[in-house]
């Protein structure tokens, strides 16, 4: 019997191939996915990892054996798979381990219209079936097996995104893009084709062994090559995509990273111009500037926990037009509430190209406070350290505490959030303040308590 406890996560399936899972298990996941979603047809895509084509085909076999017609879209980004799910009205499965190292792979699953499948929305049932079948043998095939056909949706995906953001009238821009040998190398050339953009590509060769650097732009060391290329070529900006190209990070004309909170605020302002009075979702680690800009533009900000399932749930509940996270995930109502870094990137290009100034000047209005970035501390007792920090602040005058997600401590001049990792013995600290010196003081005090 397969041990799925370390393989099936809160929102997806992810583990080392073949140590933790293989094509035989992928076939069972395909059968279970069809049974739980009761799907007559599904769509499947995969990234450039060496194990992805085989795992994807095995999943398709399992799904077809249960009677579902399978459309394989082949190599794609995760948001391209979401597009296919929304555009075709089919449940979908994407084979990727995102930014994880080469030996990992995984499955991100969704219902029709890109609605997420997580622990509470079908993933627990899928796991139970796979465990049952891996012990007792594969399920009986359907009386009439489904078909497996191929379809290329890349051009349709690109055309749909370009319909959502008008780039026709922008000034010509030089744009450096680091695809990290991931799926951005597949999608960017088609999405940018015909636009007034001079593209400077880095690491567009699809290679799931990641020979140049990890496809994880959240780690500053993986932005170094892009920053140097922007300065060397005098590009107007740089874009960095993660392995499955659903997240996009931005650097300005000087090579300085632009905060995802600033990008969230910029895109929110543009979406509110299209949809006046709309609701915008932001997680509790995004900057104060995000709800401020939303209110200034006549919108309603809604604060949520960290994580795509919470963002998408709130977007569906409130009818929000847009949502953003500090981790550079950007969600759009016009994209079935799913996240797409590419669409956020097009908004940045449209905003920059629609005026004469540099990006550093444009984003200054959206980047108003001093932030620490995320600081991780390894601790033996997460709950105990959180309790100690709470005790240190709860009786201070002018201090507010809330526990929506971890512990948030705030005053009129600063705030910090301390959250436990779900997968590692870590506490994650984020601090923001009106002044740099205040941010440093609060950061150092909080870290001293965490690491005591």
From TrEMBL:
<dbReference type="Pfam" id="PF00408">
    <property type="entry name" value="PGM_PMM_IV"/>
</dbReference>
<keyword id="KW-0460">Magnesium</keyword>
<keyword id="KW-0479">Metal-binding</keyword>
<dbReference type="InterPro" id="IPR005843">
    <property type="entry name" value="A-D-PHexomutase_C"/>
</dbReference>
<dbReference type="InterPro" id="IPR005841">
    <property type="entry name" value="Alpha-D-phosphohexomutase_SF"/>
</dbReference>
<feature type="domain" description="Alpha-D-phosphohexomutase alpha/beta/alpha">
    <location>
        <begin position="6"/>
        <end position="134"/>
    </location>
</feature>
<dbReference type="Pfam" id="PF02880">
    <property type="entry name" value="PGM_PMM_III"/>
</dbReference>
<dbReference type="Pfam" id="PF02878">
    <property type="entry name" value="PGM_PMM_I"/>
</dbReference>
<dbReference type="InterPro" id="IPR005846">
    <property type="entry name" value="A-D-PHexomutase_a/b/a-III"/>
</dbReference>
<dbReference type="InterPro" id="IPR005845">
    <property type="entry name" value="A-D-PHexomutase_a/b/a-II"/>
</dbReference>
<dbReference type="InterPro" id="IPR005844">
    <property type="entry name" value="A-D-PHexomutase_a/b/a-I"/>
</dbReference>
<dbReference type="Pfam" id="PF02879">
    <property type="entry name" value="PGM_PMM_II"/>
</dbReference>
<protein>
    <submittedName>
        <fullName>Phosphomannomutase/phosphoglucomutase</fullName>
    </submittedName>
</protein>
<keyword id="KW-0413">Isomerase</keyword>
<comment type="similarity">
    <text>Belongs to the phosphohexose mutase family.</text>
</comment>
<feature type="domain" description="Alpha-D-phosphohexomutase alpha/beta/alpha">
    <location>
        <begin position="156"/>
        <end position="255"/>
    </location>
</feature>
<dbReference type="InterPro" id="IPR016055">
    <property type="entry name" value="A-D-PHexomutase_a/b/a-I/II/III"/>
</dbReference>
<feature type="domain" description="Alpha-D-phosphohexomutase alpha/beta/alpha">
    <location>
        <begin position="263"/>
        <end position="369"/>
    </location>
</feature>
<dbReference type="InterPro" id="IPR036900">
    <property type="entry name" value="A-D-PHexomutase_C_sf"/>
</dbReference>
<feature type="domain" description="Alpha-D-phosphohexomutase C-terminal">
    <location>
        <begin position="374"/>
        <end position="447"/>
    </location>
</feature>
<keyword id="KW-0597">Phosphoprotein</keyword>
């Amino acid at each position: 019997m397969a041990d799925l406890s370390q393989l099936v996560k809160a929102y997806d399936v992810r583990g080392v191939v073949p140590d933790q899972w293989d094509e035989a298990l992928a076939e069972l996941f395909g059968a279970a996915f069809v049974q739980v979603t009761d799907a007559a047809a599904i769509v499947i895509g995969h990234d450039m990892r060496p194990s992805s084509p085989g795992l994807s085909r095995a999943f398709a076999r399992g799904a077809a054996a249960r009677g579902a017609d399978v459309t394989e879209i082949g190599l794609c980004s995760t948001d391209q798979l979401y597009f296919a799910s929304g555009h075709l009205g089919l449940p979908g499965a994407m084979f990727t381990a995102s930014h994880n190292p080469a030996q990992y792979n995984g499955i991100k699953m969704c219902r029709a219209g890109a609605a997420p499948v997580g622990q509470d929305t079908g993933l627990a049932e899928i796991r139970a079936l796979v465990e049952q079948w891996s012990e007792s043998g594969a399920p009986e095939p359907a009386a009439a097996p489904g078909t497996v056909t191929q379809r290329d949706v890349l051009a349709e995906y690109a055309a749909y995104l370009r319909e959502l953001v008008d780039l026709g009238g922008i000034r010509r821009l030089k744009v450096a893009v680091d695809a990290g040998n991931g799926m951005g190398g597949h999608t960017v050339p088609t999405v940018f084709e015909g636009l007034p953009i001079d593209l400077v590509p880095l690491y567009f060769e699809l290679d799931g062994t990641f020979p140049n650097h990890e496809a994880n732009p959240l780690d500053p060391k993986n932005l170094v090559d892009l920053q140097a290329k922007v300065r060397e070529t005098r590009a107007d900006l740089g874009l960095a995509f993660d392995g499955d190209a659903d997240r996009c990070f931005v650097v300005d004309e000087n090579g300085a990273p632009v905060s995802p909170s600033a990008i969230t605020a910029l895109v929110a302002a543009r979406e509110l111009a299209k949809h006046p009075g709309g609701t915008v979702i932001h997680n509790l680690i995004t900057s104060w500037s995000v709800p401020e800009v939303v209110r200034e533009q006549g919108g309603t900000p809604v604060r949520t926990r960290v994580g795509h399932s919470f963002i998408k749930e709130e977007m569906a509940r409130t009818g929000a037009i847009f949502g953003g996270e500090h981790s550079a995930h950007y969600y759009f109502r016009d994209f079935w509430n799913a996240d797409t870094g590419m669409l956020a990137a097009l908004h940045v290009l449209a905003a920059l190209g629609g005026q004469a100034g540099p990006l550093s000047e444009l984003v200054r209005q959206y980047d108003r406070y001093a932030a620490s970035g995320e600081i991780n501390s390894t601790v033996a007792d997460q709950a105990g350290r959180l309790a100690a920090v709470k005790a240190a602040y709860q009786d201070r005058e002018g201090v507010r505490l809330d526990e929506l997600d971890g512990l948030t401590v705030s005053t009129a001049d600063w705030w910090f959030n301390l959250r436990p990792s779900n997968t590692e013995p870590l506490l994650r600290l984020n601090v923001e303040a009106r002044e740099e010196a205040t941010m440093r003081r609060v950061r150092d005090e909080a870290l001293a308590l965490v690491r005591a």
